[in-house]
Amino acid sequence: MRKVITFLKEQAQDGLLPWSAQDATAQRFHLSHAAVELIALQNGLFPARYQRNRNMIQVDEQLRLFQSRVAVIGCGGLGGYVLEELARLGVGQIIAVDPDIFEEHNLNRQILSSPALLGQPKAAVAAERLAQVNPAVTVTAIQDYFCLANGFELLAGAHVAVDALDSIPYRLQLAEYCNLAGIPMVHGAIGGWYGHVASQFPGETTVQQIYRHWVQGKGIEQQLGNPSFTPAVVASLEVAEVCKILLGKGEPLRNRKLAIDLLEMEMQEISYAPAPVTLVDAA
């Protein structure tokens, strides 16, 4: 270990560790890129790929991100952008959950999709993409639906869960499970020019209150569709919330929803009074 640390420090320039040095260290000492990045951060070396983070995220905070585990439920319109940004941010462990394959109607907005990947599982494609974007990130791809019955298995060890679903029943189940498991949840939804974001911590019911008047069906996305830009905007706001929660910085969207209108370029904050949680037995 001492030899590895010495080698890394010799390769660093102004506290920054170039990717070429990380890669060389992995090959020379037969380590994974994840192991090399962990050793570097633990010894105060900032991987150069994150150098534009340095003015807002300290090296100990970058280490915290790298040691965090985030579950992204849905790898489509919202989820693809969320996964990409989490990997580029430096979140070290990512769970990508989606039962579906890419279809042609996904091509207008889902960043992970392409004509060559039609028919391929979204979760598996996500894992391959993130391995290219940031080889130090560990991605667990799960091609399955999320529900209360399998929630414990799918979200095991997660510090935060991200809702990138297009189904209100499933996102309500996700909110229910996160309360049961004591995991913060970042919720996002989109439809046409519009979207919203909220963060729900254990013991809160913001998501349930947002959909308290829902009766049936997937939601407004089925009526309004989605252009290429709405998922990118809402997903980026979700990732910002995840970053704040993991680092304990700033003010998350707790007990409130940020509603976004891209047609009129307006944002509105809607507050929700804290309410007691009625838990459902997952068994």
TrEMBL record:
Pfam families: ThiF. Residues 50-272 form the THIF-type NAD/FAD binding fold domain. It comes from the Bacteria. InterPro entries: ThiF/MoeB/HesA (IPR045886), ThiF_NAD_FAD-bd (IPR000594), Ubiquitin-activating_enz (IPR035985). Transmembrane segments: none annotated. CDD domains: ThiF_MoeB_HesA_family. PANTHER family: TRNA THREONYLCARBAMOYLADENOSINE DEHYDRATASE. This is HesA/MoeB/ThiF family protein. It comes from Geomonas anaerohicana.
